[in-house]
Amino acid sequence: MKLLEELPSLLFWAPLIYNLLDKTTLIFKGGYMRNIQDGRRPVRDEDRRQDLTEIHEERRNRELRLQSRKKRKRKRLIIGIASAVGTLILLVVLAILFVRIGSIDVVGLKYKDKSEVIGLSGLQMDDSIFGIRDKFLRENIEKDPHFIYVGWKYKFLKNVIIEVEERRELLLFEFLNTYVIVDEDLRVLGHISRSDEAKYPIVRGINVTEFVLGEVISTDETYKKTALKDVMAALKDSEIYETVKVIDISNAGRITFSLDNEMTVNFGQEYDAVKKLKWIKVIRDTVTAEGYSRGTIDVSSVTAPVYKPEREESDDDTADLDFDDQGNIIIKGDGDDETGEG
Description:
Strand order of the largest sheet: 6-5-4-7-10-11-12-13-14-15-16-17
Order of helices and strands: HHEHHEEEEEEEEHEEEHEEEEE
Largest sheet: 12 strands, mixed
Number of helices: 6
Radius of gyration: 53 Å
Distance between the termini: 177 Å
CATH topology of the domain at 221-341: Rossmann fold
Strand content: 15-25%
CATH architecture of the domain at 221-341: 3-Layer(aba) Sandwich
Shape: elongated
Number of strands: 17
Structural class: alpha+beta
CATH class of the domain at 221-341: Alpha Beta
């Protein structure tokens, strides 16, 4: 009875359910057919797992190929570096065997002979170029304080050039039975016996406490040392240097020279040294041409230089000679009156 009662509602819902089932079947069949037409089957779990396995395998193969490529590159790089190092070692060995010193030259010398520098350097013909070291050259060459090592260079073919600077011997100091030789900075360069000819001016009147080879002289009279250095800075390249035999600096405010013609120079203080030295040259040449010898050249006042001839006790007429700006002699008597011009 209940079935009969519900029959109308079932009849109402039956067409709707049928249509829904029919559409679902069509949709399923359509999708399946499309998969068939595209050459694919409906995706199943097994297919999904197989696809993932293939993807992982492909990735792994790609990584293996990349690693293999990197290994080949690394191997080629190592082989290239090893070849370069081997070639370099071979070149060095060949250079050591065949690139040797064929000649040695020295530049920068003015007073000494290059054989002295070559002997000090320790270099020998046929030594390897690659055995030369700046440190050893400097230490060897500068054992002699005359030389200051600058550097060396190799000039093709097989020519080694050593460059030095040279300290110039300029003055002598008396010490025991020797003359101590110094340069313009009063640095000790060596010594010679007193029996040898004094080739440079002898310095007197300064208390030297120590002479050390290669070092500047030590003295407790530093003001005299400074004054002497100032004078030498001008004297060393002047025309009068070769004529100076003695420099007396007993009184730093009244420095005196003794010249080779037995003239005495009252130099005064170290100031205006260049002008004073020029005056000494002019006056010396002028009075020598006039027949004068010995006497005293006074340039303590650079604006009023004077030549005083040597006076004999019996000669009362000897006159002092003043000079004008052009170096002409102005002869004056014992007084202040001008007596003539020569």
